[in-house]
Amino acid sequence: METNFSLNITQIPKELKLIIEILTIKNDETSHPHLNEWFKDTDWDLFIELAIHHRVFPLLSRKFKTINSTLIPPHVIQTINQTNLMNTLNMLHFSGEMEQVCKLFAGNKINLLNLKGPVLGVDLYGDVSLRSSGDLDFLISINDLDKADQLLKSHGYEKDDYIQTVLNDWKWRHHHVTYFHPKKEIKLEIHWRLNPGPGKEPSFNELWERKRVSSLTSYPVYYLGREDLFLFLVSHGARHGWSRLRWLLDINQIVGQRIDWVTLSRLLKKYQYLHVGGQALVLASQLLSTPMTQEMKKLFKGNHTKRLAQEAIYYLERMVNLHNDPVPDDVASYHKRHLYSLMSKKQKLFFILSFLYPYPEDAKTLPLPERLHFLYFLLRPFLWAWRKTKHHALS
Predict the structure, then answer these.
(1) DSSP per residue, 354-368
(2) What is the pLDDT, as a whole number, of residue 29?
(3) Which residue among 81, 327, 342, 356 is buried most deeply as judged by most CB within 10 Å?
(4) What InterPro entries does the entry give (predicted)?
(5) 3-state secondary structure of 179
């Protein structure tokens, strides 16, 4: 990447720029006179809203102790600190349940990997309270899904049967199923893939062989190896447009660890994520001033990664929440185009071919007995055209 390249961030809200400025303060700095100008004419309600949206309030709460507190209205500090306290209690609650789930699965001979949650708080930030989480994410082998389903239901978890499928397309179109415990008020996501398909990724057995043990609990809790975790973090963040700053802060933290960059580069190339890894590093280096070594810079050569990084700025210019429906039409349309631009040529080919595979909507349009579901392969183009024509007529 050329040294004179810089992202266009002029449309990012001033309040979010202030948040980034505070977050990038080094802990050993004792005074920050250059910050005074940043605090002028700040919309503090928007500041709080952005801090919560981007899930960075735990780190802001800690950073507030390193700067002149008179620059920030007391109610802002109080709100951020109170939100952080609730998060700390929540993460401790999650930590206890995470350990219980790990014991439960191990006792029933199901290998389980933690993807996010409390283990990332400890691994990336050194403190479970410095990273927030809305649920617990686990990865298991697809062969253990039925066993895990029975196990969780027998322990009070209820399955959210939102997945509709025909001809078992759920195995590659989707990547997790959700469970909720009404008494504990905890949501679990049981993954059988790192990301939704179609696409190639490491098998569960490969990830299990490279696993690490978390220091968070006394009972062994396993999570991804460092290079595998980097691949997961960049693919997950990119798939969501880096619409939450927390995901870039995770990248800022993990690159400071002892990563085998040769192994990582080989891994990213093998699974078609080299350009996505480059996008993450460009964003982290330019927004968070993440130091880049020569090994890291090799990942973001060429114009493609720079273009992808600039496209992601769209999500920081507005508060995009891709998790809550309905997503505004303009955002949904942009996100669809951006996801396509993130794909390698091979991934785009698989994506296009996937349209030829029957969808659940085809079975709704023309219900057939299960033994005749193979006919949807032949009927799909006509059923798709019929739905489009009908939708256009209704519009």
Answers:
(1) HTTS--HHHHHHS--
(2) 52
(3) 342
(4) NT_sf, NTP_transf_5
(5) strand
pLDDT of residue 65: 87
pLDDT of residue 56: 98
pLDDT in tens, 86-129: 999 999 999 999 999 999 999 999 999 999 999 999 999 999 99
CA distance 199 to 350: 7
Question: Count of CB atoms within 10 A of residue 267's CB?
Answer: 21
pLDDT category at 354 given cuts 50, 70, 90 is: confident
Q: Please state which of the four CATH numbers 3.30.499.10, 3.60.21.10, 3.40.50.300, 3.30.460.40 is assigned to the domain occupying 14-353.
A: 3.30.460.40
Average pLDDT over residues 243-272: 96
- pTM (whole model) above 0.70: yes
CA distance 359 to 380: 8
Which amino acid belongs to residue 173?
R
Name residue, tokens 């299990």.
Answer: 208
Cβ distance 73 to 44 under 8 Å?
Answer: yes
- Token pair, residue 168, equals 């078992």
Give pLDDT tens digits for 22-77: 999 876 554 455 667 778 889 999 999 999 999 999 999 999 988 877 889 999 99
Give the whole-angstrom CA distance, residue 14 versus residue 20. Answer: 10
**Residue 82 tokens, joined:** 């109170």
Give the tokens for residue 125: 């930030």
Q: Which long-range contacts (CB under 8 A, 24 or more apart) does 104-109 make?
A: 104/151, 104/155, 105/138, 105/140, 105/148, 105/151, 106/220, 108/147, 108/151
**Is 276 in contact with 203 (CB distance < 8 Å)?**
no
